[in-house]
Specification:
- The complex is a heterodimer of chains A (468) and B (519).
- With 468 residues, chain A is α/β, with parallel strands linked by helices.
- Chain A folds into 3 domains: 29 residues, no CATH class; 115 residues, Aspartate Aminotransferase, domain 1, CATH 3.90.1150.10; 267 residues, Type I PLP-dependent aspartate aminotransferase-like (Major domain) (Aspartate Aminotransferase, domain 2, 3-Layer(aba) Sandwich).
- Chain A is 35% helix and 15% strand.
- In chain A, helix 6 packs parallel to helix 7 and helix 12 packs across helix 14.
- The longest helix of chain A is centred in the C-terminal third of the chain and has 38 residues.
- Chain A is globular and about 80 Å long.
- By secondary structure, chain B is α/β, with parallel strands linked by helices.
- Among the domains of chain B are: 46 residues, no CATH class; 216 residues, Type I PLP-dependent aspartate aminotransferase-like (Major domain) (Aspartate Aminotransferase, domain 2), CATH 3.40.640.10; 30 residues, no CATH class.
- In chain B, the strands form 3 sheets. A 7-stranded mixed β-sheet of chain B has the order 1-7-6-5-4-2-3, with helices on both faces. In chain B, strands 10-11-12 form a 3-stranded antiparallel β-sheet, with no helix packed on it. Chain B has a two-stranded antiparallel ribbon with strand order 8-9.
- In chain B, helix 7 links the parallel strand 2 and strand 3.
- In chain B, helix 3 packs antiparallel against helix 10, helix 5 runs parallel beside helix 10 and helix 6 crosses helix 7.
- The longest helix of chain B has 37 residues.
- Chain B is globular.
- The chains are: A alpha/beta (468), B alpha/beta (519).
- At the A-B interface, helix 1, helix 2, helix 3, helix 4 and helix 5 of A face helix 1, helix 2, helix 3, helix 4 and helix 5 of B.
Chain lengths: 468, 519
Amino acid sequence: MTERDLSHPWMANSAPGALKAMMDEIGVSSPREVFQQIPEDHFRTTPLDLPPQLSSELALRRDLVGKLKKNGDCETNLSFLGAGVWQHHVPAVVDEIVGRTEFATNVWGSYQSDHGRNQAWFEFSSQLGALLNLEVVQLPVYSWGCAIGHAIRMAARITGRSKVLLPRLSDPERLSVIRTYCKPEGMAGRIEIVLVDADPTSGRMDLNDLKSKLGSDIAAVYFENPAYLGTIETEAAEIAQAARAVGAETIVGVDPISLGVMTAPGDYGADIVTGPVQPLGVHMQCGGGAGGWIASRDEETYVTQYNGFLVSIVETIQEGQHAFGLACPHQNSYGMRENGNDWTGNSTYLWAIAGAVYMSLLGPQGFQEVGTLIVSKARYAAKKLDAIPGVKIVWPDTTFKEFVVNFDDTGKSVAEINDALRGQGIFGGKDISGEVESLGQSALYCVTEIHSADDIDRLVDTLKEIVQ
Amino acid sequence: MTRLPDFHAAKWDEPVIYEIGRQGARGQIFDAPEKRVADAVGTDLIPHAMSRKDTPDLPEITEFEAQRHFLHLSQMTLGMMGISLFGTCTMKYNSKAAEFATLRPELAEVHPFQHPDTLQGVLEIIHDFDGILQNLSGMDQFIFQAGGGADAAYTMATVARAYWADKGMLGQRTEMVTSVQAHPCNPATAAAAGFDVVNLPLEENGYPYLEALKAAVSEKTALIMINNPDDMGIYNPEIKEWTRIAKEAGALCFYDHANFNGVMGKLSARELGFDACMFMLHKTFGAPKAGGGPAVGAFGCTAQLAPYVPGPVVVKEGDSYILDEDRSKSTGKVREYWGNVPQVVKAYAWARAMGAEGINLASDISVVANNYMDKKLAEIPGLEISNPDNGAWRMEMTRWSLGPLTEETGVSTVHFANRMADYGIDPYWMSHEPWIVAEPFTPEAGELWSKEDIDTWIAVIAKIAKEARENPDMVKSAPHNQPVAQAKGDAFEDPAKWAMTWRAYQRKVIGDETKKGVA
């Protein structure tokens, strides 16, 4: 192969002569000479065997798009999947801003060269704090489950206790992550997870069971509002009060898109609040839109326990000017290695910018409208589905955007029903049969602002035919 | 003579978003529910106890004002639009073709719980990319659930937990051994996972003594976590002995392949004796960094460890791809779902566009360019290379020290970095903690940047070193051509002054007592 053949659009020094010019300058005749530190018997014995190079963008695009087109998506199909990843409207301006190359490619400069990004980060925390009625919001960690895991570990450090209470009706996906964070049995510093029963008539936390398990050994109580199965926790203030009475922290998980119509967790006694960033203008992306934030009151007890990036507004040396930088930067693992709070690293900070744009576009009225729209459509869907013979809504009139649909009386499994729906271009709700024994053949349906009344009627009509 | 850029950053004097807009201004409108929906459900939908009474304090601005505001912020982010030789992070071109492919609804509007029949395209890409990484490393299985390099290190620690629990030895294998210059994520994640961390000091050759390793590993060692080459650009030639000694003690060996760019195509983690390794797709494999994620730490391991990895694992069965969740020995999830899928697709695109020949050429260019850069940096008075007695060519990056210049002028590496931005050059990476040399900086040229870019970068370094001697106060008070001046750092550590939200700022600094919240 001639040297010319190797010239590649992504490597300036692959152009003919460029590499040689540098080698001449340092006085080597072959690239292999600069690898002199590596002993001969360390070099790999087999040459790379990779698929053929696609250095032409046209060829690369053909390969990528050709493969991706084998997917079915939630735009072509009508989807009612949720359970941690939800289809919401993403305003076009959000896509433009997160697609800006400066935001996509930056890594870490100075507070001055990163000024715009850092301001966007601060505006994410500020606006989310306003929705939560809390004054400290950390930039998002990897996911909601990871945020809960860190929050539980914060609570364990704050209280010096090592047992936490979680709802029995928790999302198994998030719960698996939380269990990982709390460490397995037999491991030093393990945090024990105890599950609190649900009231079978409402899906909400059973307060009697909660109170029987609360004690001076409990570091924290965690619950979600709305919960995994969509139910609204009306007794949140009582739960927080009961936790506080035994010196435990109250950790709450909330869906930020609900906060135009639902009470801010800062107003019912939550100490640490977590939630997903994805509803705030991030596409689903096969779950690649996940990200989870942590928030609290502005108290040193909490602030000094965060694991990641807290962005503070500060003055500059020029009168009347502001900049943005990291508060308490020395408590994380970059500064403290194994002695820091948990660990941090690359996370999901681009989604903080998406969230900042999204919240500024919606404003107070937009959040009120979208919340009303979601809960109205979800209730409408639930009512219409409940009217289908053999189909029933498990906890009617108590949910936000998700609800459990039971199919036991249809004689069909959720798997069979979802297969039939898929044949009609509809993705039915997540099959939760087997997750909770008492719920039988059930699916978790998600309805949001993207569903029109016609979309919902189409689901209902199609389901009627399938279960007949 | 290289001409230096006569640069000035965009300076919009952009207000905080709360300072713009007007009451009732709208950026997005949602129509009321259709009449038949409203008629069916009414308006009293949220239980009273949970029905929001207050109005959240959010900005009220138009769609255009939001667009303009955030475009201004993007323009006040240097973000590699100059020259960024940011060591340890391997700055690359982030392909727009790959980016645009992932924005298509066939990926952006896909739900991870869709039936696998509707996920065949993305699963095929993940499966094929797994194969590419297997070939680059010699490992048998890769997963992409970890949301970054640190998360992949955490994955290793949790896999080690599950492995030793399965052997009934979790109570005995309680230690993780690493070196003091390993990335902080290795000791930090191992500690968070419950292991005791044993740090080996560096010796004059730049890496820990083999004897120190022999003394540190024992029947208590669960795993070792090590990178190679390190951030000084030094390759540990005893690494095969390391894995042999660790394995003799029964420990698992994890290769933090953060610094893969200079050895890709040259080394195989498996052939060096490692049981597992990690690649950062947002560094070596061309996915964007996005200011700190979404990222991917691709975790790979041998068949021996594969049963313990977090699920699901993408598996090919006949002609179709499935998500295998039925793994009884799995350590459990480190994150929900199967990873930052768009970044996996972008990394796949990078590997396909580069091919084996491109990858081999890129590691050649990376190492040659770094040594070219070292030669030029050595000509600038006041700079000192780390481990000066090691006369060998360095790998793809080199740790340098400004110590002599700082002693002479009082200009520190932080001052120096601040001043770089005044020339449109991204401030360099200094060093992870602990600082092993005084006033460190760590350039890495990689395969992206041209020789002309590198020459400009060097010329800027030389110019600032000259400025430090001629006008140190000007350098210390830099930057002067940026959107803002130096931040006053005292507030970052002061509970009375730090303000992580606009509301906290109003309460603490402006003294607005109407803002709720607890001091």
